[in-house]
């Protein structure tokens, strides 16, 4: 029974460390390298990374 608890703790620690080590930045040179814009959210290339910006229509 104790082995299952140890295995479970190791599994959750491993998943936590892997989830924190993910690079989520999209590298870009121009705005065209970023994902396409949607109705409310757009992407701009800022400092070599695609940053999301919210579009406001007035």
From TrEMBL:
This protein's UniProt keywords: Signal
Membrane-traversing stretches: none
Protein's name in the database: Nodule Cysteine-Rich (NCR) secreted peptide
Signal peptide range in chain numbering: 1-24
Matching Pfam families: Nodulin_late
Origin species: Medicago truncatula (Barrel medic)
MF terms (GO), sorted A to Z: metal ion binding
Annotated ranges, domain Late nodulin: 3-51
InterPro entries linked to this entry: Nodulin_late_dom
């Amino acid at each position: 029974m104790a082995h299952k608890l140890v295995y479970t703790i190791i599994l959750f620690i491993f998943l936590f460390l892997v989830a924190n080590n993910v690079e989520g930045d999209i590298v870009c040179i121009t705005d065209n390298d970023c994902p396409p814009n949607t109705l409310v959210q757009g992407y701009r290339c800022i400092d070599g990374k695609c940053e999301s910006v919210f579009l406001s229509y007035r």
